[in-house]
Structure formats: C-alpha cells, structure tokens
Amino acid sequence: xxxxxxxxxxxxxxxxxxxxxxxxxxxxxxxxxxxxxxxxxxxxxxxxxxxxxxxxxxxxxxxxxxxxxxxxxxxxxxxxxxxxxxxxxxxxxxxxxxxxxxxxxxxxxxxxxxxxxxxxxxxxxxxxxxxxxxxxxxxxxxxxxxxxxxxxxxxxxxxxxxxxxxxxxxxxxxxxxxxxxxxxxxxxxxxxxxxxxxxxxxxxxxxxxxxxxxxxxxxxxxxxxxxxxxxxxxxxxxxxxxxxxxxxxxxxx
Amino acid sequence: xxxxxxxxxxxxxxxxxxxxxxxxxxxxxxxxxxxxxxxxxxxxxxxxxxxxxxxxxxxxxxxxxxxxxxxxxxxxxxxxxxxxxxxxxxxxxxxxxxxxxxxxxxxxxxxxxxxxxxxxxxxxxxxxxxxxxxxxxxxxxxxxxxxxxxxxxxxxxxxxxxxxxxxxxxxxxxxxxxxxxxxxxxxxxxxxxxxxxxxxxxxxxxxxxxxxxxxxxxxxxxxxxxxxxxxxxxxxxxxxxxxxxxxxxxxxxxxxxxxxxxxxxxxxxxxxxxxxxxxxxxxxxxxxxxxxxxxxxxxxxxxxxxxxxxxxxxxxxxxxxxxxxxxxxxxxxxxxxxxxxxxxxxxxxxx
Lengths: 253, 351
Description:
The complex is a heterodimer of chains A (253) and B (351). By secondary structure, chain A is an alpha/beta fold. Chain A has helices at residues 47-54, 77-83, 100-105, 125-138, 155-169, 185-200, 212-218, 241-249, and strands spanning 9-18, 21-31, 35-40, 62-67, 70-72, 85-88, 111-112, 122-123, 173-177, 204-208, 221-226, 229-234. Chain A is globular. Helix content of chain B is 77%, strand content 2%. The radius of gyration of chain B is 23 Å and the shape is globular. Classes of the chains: A alpha/beta (253), B mainly alpha (351).
C-alpha cells in the first residue's frame, strides 16, 4: 500500500518545434504506477510527438522529463530504454523469423561468460525460453506454438508478444501506441485484458488510442491534446464521454 | 457463447465453420514442413536416380571426388550464406578468391613457408571482404549489389595485373598441396576444412549472441536498430567473414590444382549464391542455416558430377543449375505465401 503516491513519470512544460510547426506547447503531465493513462487527441494533436519525446526518439526543445522525481535526459531510444521506458509502436518491431522467446531478448540476450562483450557471448537459450514462457504465462497470453517463428502468428498474438516484451524490460513506464488499431474484435479484447493485467501488476501504462470505448473501459485518467496543447485531463466514464469527444475535436460542449 | 467455446481449439466441436480452417491449417503446416526438408529430399532423390543411371556414381573414388569438387563451393557458400541472411549479396567472392590465390602465389615466389602463403591468402580475402562491408555500410549504399560488383571487377583486374605473365602460376607449398589435394583414409582433406569452417559458422550463428543479431538484422533491420543491435557492425562482419571464406576457398583450390591463377573462381559467386538458395535459405533474409549452404553445394557437386559421368555437354550443367535456381526461388515465394496463410488462419481461429 503506497499512500500519497508520487508520479512515476512527470513531464513539465514540454515544448517541441519542427521548423515553423509548434508541435508541443507547454505540455505537462503525470503518470502514476498501477494506472492506465490514456493520451487522446485528433491526428496531428501532438500525441505521437509527445510519446516520441518520452521514448527518446525526439528530444524536447524546452521542458523537463522526470522519472521517480529524478530529471532525466532521454537523448536516444536506447537511453530511454535504459532509463526503464519501453514503447510499443504500431510496427511492433518484431522479428518475423525469430521465435517469441528470441524476440523477447533480441538485443539484450542472456549470455555467458560475462567478461566477454555482449556480441561474443554464448546464448543461454533454455533460460531465455523459460523466462519468456513464464512471462507470457503470467500475462495469460496463449500462443499456438512457442518454438515457431512469429511470422506464423496472428496480429493479436504478435501484439501480445510485443507488449509482453515491453513489460519485461520496462522498469518504469510502458507506452502503447494504438495497440488495437490493426486487430479484430476478439483479438482487441485479448490485448485490452493484457493491458488490464499490466496495470494490476503495478505498471505505469500510457495508452494512445482512438477508440473511446477502450478509453472508458480501461483508462484511469485521460489527457487530451489539441494542436500541441493540453486541453484537458479527466477521469473518463460513460457520463463524460461527450465532454471527452468535444475536447478532442475542439467543439464547445 | 458459442464463440467463446470456439476459442479453445481443444474443446471446439468440429462444426462446419470451425472444422474447415483446421484442415486447411494442417495442409498449410504440412506444406511448410515439406518445403523445409525439400532440398534434402531432392538431394537424396537425385543421388538415387544418378546411381541407378550410372553405377560408377557410388564408387568410393567418385564420391570422394564429389566431396573434393564441392569443397570450394561449400566453403565460400558458408560465407555467402551469412551475407544472404542479412538480406545482402556478395558478388565479389569468385574474383576475391582468384586475387587471394595470386597473392599467395606471389608470396610463394618470396618464401617457401606454407604458413606465410596461407596467411597471405586469408588476409587478402578478408581485406577485400572488409572493404565490401565498410563501403556498403559507411558509404550508405542502398544495396550491396553495386559495391560487390565493383570489387568483383577490381579484384579480377588486380589479379590479372599482379600475376606473373598475367596468367596461371604453377607451384604451391607442400602444406597447401596436402590441404587441397590429398586424402586421408580416402576422404579428401578439403572435406575436413569444410567441416571445420562449418563447425565455426555453426557456433557463430546458433550459439553466439552475434549470430542471433545476424538473424535479427536479416529479419528486420529497422527493428534491429530500435532494439539497440549494432546493425552496422553486424553487416560489416558478415562481408568480412564472407571474404575470409573466399580466402580459405583460395587455399583449398590452390592446393587442389597446385597453382594460383587470376582466372580461378569464375562464376563462383553464382555457384555459391545458387548453393545457398537451392539449399533452402531465403533470398528475403533472416531465413536459413548453414545446412542449406552445405546441401546446396553438394547438390551442385552431384549435378555436375552426374552430368559428367553421363557424358552430358557442359553447357547443360549451366542450364540445369539455372533451372534449379528458378525452382528454389519459387519455393521460397511459396513458403512466404503459406506462412501468410498460416497467420490468417491463426487470426480467424481466434475471431
């Protein structure tokens, strides 16, 4: 029981310009553990820019990102990953020719002996298989075959593998960019269950989605961006769904 | 509710809608498995057919001959397969090999030391391979085709320029003649070289993190970068190793012929690419293993040998190998199609 929780991730006064385009205008937000924070906004509202700043793809022109109260500089995706922020983009960054376990550890393989540089180490295949299987099992992800390349798996299964991989290595924050965009109804359902499971395990999840139903069902809080500005923050529910939508599109409610 | 039930394949009743995809799924997975072992089956079938046609084929002397003839292709194909795994291609291996034999031949003019000559060939091959990789990666070329085509031309030219009389130079140190030309208990020594190279490549690709990275780069270069894999280093390493393999091939070929020549390795790039592809690796990258390169090399060796024994004109060998390449590439396309089917079936089973 953590009383008076401090935010895991804090963004303060974020500014980002691309030439003449002012993509982020003084955006601030907090994300806490055991919560799903929905990031909403129309196309071009600045969601992607903000997420890419948090995951180290872009650097902020002004403003600050803090993790557990510590100011961090996320100058590359690798730096963000090392800081404990994992992002699952829509392309998933999965390797079709590798098995789920190989995908899990790709780029951070468990190997020995430790004194050799990473690339020269020998793979601990069985350890990685076991750990990956345990994680997938814990997250209730069912796969048809564990030793088959992910090329043979469906969109939802691939999404689940990518999300599960992110959670293993995310010590602070998991960012999911439209995880259900390409999925059918039932596969979407599974991914939503997975996100709920992540929250139950204490993760901080930032969810980008266009699906209002999913936001209302899953998100604890929603931050709405419009034209690079934060225009609102509320607890989404059936009652204020209309308000949420008008915030996104900019119409007066 | 019925939909919820159908989600569990074990408990689903074989209803009309649930049953058909599963049968199709079985067909697809059998098809995929057949494609996986196809090249080996073809090799065995080929050997059986040839042995029925000509009894000389299975004589120990001839089998040993096939191994020796396939050795150079096999060694260089092992390097080529690493490059192809990363979606690349190395067209320079043949000319690289020729240049390496010439450099070795020149070194033999200076010293009788077998070690020095062998090292010269290996260093020459490796250096050219490294140049390929470095120019490709750091020159930001869109595809390795052009740079390796350029080094093909440069190496062939250099080999002709450097070789005395611009032609074949007789003579090799004993050590190299033994490696390339002699046999041990009836097995050609070059076979043991193939075995050794294959063992090293096996450890590199299957047991080492580096090898996993080679597969990752071939599977999805963009994702590999995102995952923090040193993509450039991996690419340079594969071309360098391909060059080293060309250097090893140079030692074996020079030993087999007792000579060095700027004319060696003509069309060897095609033979090695063909070996990797007809062995069953994918041109699209990330799929394949060294077994494919070895089976492919042996298949080319068997076809050449069989057509020789059957007194078929040498031109037909080229036509035959070309046709087999077409079949192999089509098989690769078919495999990709079947995998897509399998993926859709997965999704429909869950829906």
